[in-house]
Backbone:
């Protein structure tokens, strides 16, 4: 091989590594900022609750909770509005369009990157139920594009259009991989969601960049956060290796069916909301004239509903929405007595406390809390995603699916406290149902099967791949039959230019 | 959706499920047969060793060992020769050609299927170091093709050429998935190895069929074999969740480099052997005239080398070649004292016995045994794959890579008995190095990155995905630089028709 080719290969590797590592650093810095901002909100609440009179406490904490959320959401919306409105929303639908060859103006500029990074940090910091994955995909694609442009200046080959598209595809993979520190699932998900036809030759590019990113991400977590766990997965689970019986597979299939219909409902709600805003005469007049009013109204609704001493007391304990996943995936059973040496499968009292006794209220029935939690956030995350701020919906849907799955698993466990009759004596592990539910609902909304792999990587366990695949495929089948995926739905809503799909070959 | 479309979708799903389940049953039946045949060889050896005189024992056991191997290999070669010689070899290179649109005569007929099933069962039953994956891909593709033809009879849509190609691609995925009961890795590996451009729309098809197959496969293992482990992975490992430190990553990278060069060596040896047979005047004259002589000679060489009381005593204990994987992946350290409550990381004496004291000989140094084992089988599997019988090379290479990785890990462990200085106090786990080595060597030979996923699925653990990806990508980079993949190499050797690759875009 001539020297020029070797040099070009090395440069290529270097760029991919830079992309992966750069995005990992960015993701980590943002996570850290968001953590600080949410801790500050907690602090503010504590300070506001010190007046001594319970009436004033109630008022002040509510005002500080509402004010903080409003402030961050408004800041986010204004920053994005004035710096680069291209940063609004998820970004995956736009990337899908761009990867099919359409050029969207100013979508991949440095200005948009800044707008998205700041806007997303602010909006996530406010604690509203939105996700980080879609925006991360957009950001990684921008970084990939900027790197390509940089290379173009001193190397002609990067002027090649197809090379640019390859870099963008790698960027999408890195974006997903960095969000969940899931290199394999990230590559697959980005392929499934953004492209129609895929050149296998480029497979390793996304893989390599994502691996670099994930490695740096995990090593940094060890060094920066001094976490006692070294290279663990983000939501490491601890189920035994034979955590479920073949007899339970029909239950997992049932989760798939439910998740399929729930996904259809979610997409319908989201589309309904957007269409209402666009077509209702009053909404059109009011919100379109004063663009900032809509985020204010939505933030007000969301903050009021989630206010921890109000209805929020039913929305479980952990402060940050996504952190509830630790509780939902926990390896214990509600229906058994509290954890003790005699009851190894019972939940600890802290965990129960965080679900049943919130902010000094309660105890409430844990099944009711879980139902309210899941249902409320299903609608709230659809609502939040209609705001003109950078936001994703994968993570909230994932959490909602996990909560529904957990609920289902707990009911199965309550019905069969000694495990499925006829099998071995081991009890049901509702945590596994939660993982399956999370994957099934996200799969049903995004129309992707690789969520199963993301789930395994996020939890660091591989034992439930078969229930996962079963539920994911069934959920996909149900939702594909009724509705296009959320990304295709947004493409239609936003009137983004796109090529029609090739009709399925069975229509021959 | 009109009723006709729904019906067609249902039929499609049914066919995919039938494909997956059918192949799982076939794979299981073959495994069972092979198991019986290998147990019988063991029995024969025991019977032959009862003469009372050690000299006669030696002779009789050698003759029975040699005779059994020869018999099965000759039967396999003759069956394949007379029934359908298309069944010879792996099948993956041919599938690659077929999926690019070339029609190879009689490659996908029922006759070839029979020839491949019987031939492969016989050749694997003889215990020579060959694999099952390539032939399984070929068989699954045949089953997929037969199902398509069946459907064509009463439904016009299946006459559609593109539909047939989709079924074939799903077949390839199922073949890989059934061999290792690795549904995700199977789909990815088959995509990487057999196709150039991939329609993402068909992704779920392979996924669905593979999931059906894997589910049935695992459930049957529980029911038929009454294995105490329920839905475990094939080579379930038991490493702790934080089994390696970030400081060990350079070692894993080094494994990648070594594996890359070893892969290049393997492909060169294989190509050299085939070219020698074809070009050497004596070999040409002798073997081409009497086609049955070559397998007889090779089986003689292999049986003599692996004869357990001869040189075979250095080739570790477990009778069946692939079963040594259990020992190689085991979670213990040679360099520590034997397992006891005071030495929790030491190996059990049974495990040591099976490596060091074989057939009453020994004890031999375990490092020397591992080196001899890996090196001998590296060459033997190249040799065996030149025989005119159905055979694959993925599994032997995987085992050889695991042995080299283990050896490397043990050396690291011996150098740093208290773990990497500066990290936590936990010791090195050489089993993790074995898993990484296995993935890296197979990746280097097949030029695929999804081996990392297959590895996770085979071992049922996900903790080492980052070292796996690191080593796999480095091994790929090294071997891609020096040589085409083994499949492309066979395509060239066999003069199969193929379309040239599109030149890489950096050659613009």
Residues:
């Amino acid at each position: 091989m001539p020297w020029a080719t070797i040099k070009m290969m090395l440069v290529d590797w270097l760029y991919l590594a830079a992309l992966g590592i750069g995005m990992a650093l960015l993701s980590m810095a943002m996570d850290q900022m968001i953590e600080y901002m949410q801790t500050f909100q907690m602090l503010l609440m504590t300070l506001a609750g010190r007046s001594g009179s319970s009436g004033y406490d109630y008022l002040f904490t509510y005002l500080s909770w509402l004010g903080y959320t409003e402030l961050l959401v408004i800041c986010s919306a204004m920053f994005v509005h004035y710096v680069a409105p291209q940063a609004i929303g998820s970004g995956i639908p736009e990337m899908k369009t761009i990867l099919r060859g359409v050029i969207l103006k100013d979508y991949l500029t440095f200005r948009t990157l800044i707008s998205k990074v700041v806007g997303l940090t602010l909006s996530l910091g406010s604690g509203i139920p939105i996700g980080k994955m879609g925006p991360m995909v957009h950001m990684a694609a921008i970084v990939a594009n900027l790197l390509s442009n940089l290379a173009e200046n001193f190397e002609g080959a990067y002027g090649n259009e197809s090379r640019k598209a390859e870099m963008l595809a790698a960027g999408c993979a890195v974006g997903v991989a960095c969000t969940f520190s899931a290199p394999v699932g990230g590559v697959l998900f980005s392929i499934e969601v953004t492209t129609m036809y895929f050149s296998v030759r480029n497979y390793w590019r996304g893989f390599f960049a994502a691996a670099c990113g994930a490695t740096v991400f995990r090593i940094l977590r060890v060094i920066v956060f001094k976490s006692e766990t070294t290279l663990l997965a983000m939501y490491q689970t601890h189920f035994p290796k034979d955590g479920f019986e073949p007899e339970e597979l029909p239950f997992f299939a049932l989760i798939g069916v439910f998740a399929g219909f729930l996904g259809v409902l979610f997409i319908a709600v989201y589309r309904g909301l957007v269409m209402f805003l666009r077509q209702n005469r009053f909404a059109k007049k009011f919100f379109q004239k004063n663009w900032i009013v809509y985020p204010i109204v939505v933030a007000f609704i969301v903050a009021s509903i989630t206010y921890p001493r109000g209805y929020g007391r039913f929305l479980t304990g952990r402060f940050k929405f996504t952190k509830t996943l630790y509780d939902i995936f926990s390896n214990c059973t509600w229906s058994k007595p509290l954890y003790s040496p005699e009851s190894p499968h019972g939940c600890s009292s802290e965990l129960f406390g965080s679900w049943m006794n919130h902010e000094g209220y309660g105890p409430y029935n844990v099944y009711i809390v879980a139902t309210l939690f899941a249902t409320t956030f299903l609608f709230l995350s659809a609502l939040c995603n209609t705001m003109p701020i950078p936001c994703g919906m994968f993570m909230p849907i994932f959490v909602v699916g996990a909560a529904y799955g957990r609920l289902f698993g707990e009911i199965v466990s309550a019905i069969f406290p000694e495990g499925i009759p006829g099998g071995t004596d081991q009890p049901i592990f509702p945590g596994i149902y939660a993982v399956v539910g999370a994957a099934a609902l996200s799969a049903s909304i995004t129309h992707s099967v690789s969520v199963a792999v993301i789930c395994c990587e996020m939890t660091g366990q591989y034992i439930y791949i078969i229930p996962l695949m079963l539920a994911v495929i069934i959920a996909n089948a149900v939702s594909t039959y009724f509705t296009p995926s959320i990304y295709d739905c947004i493409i239609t809503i936003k009137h983004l230019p796109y090529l029609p799909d090739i009709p399925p070959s069975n229509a021959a």
About this structure: Residues 247-493 of chain A form a domain with the Clc chloride channel fold (CATH 1.10.3080.10). The mean pLDDT of chain A is 83.
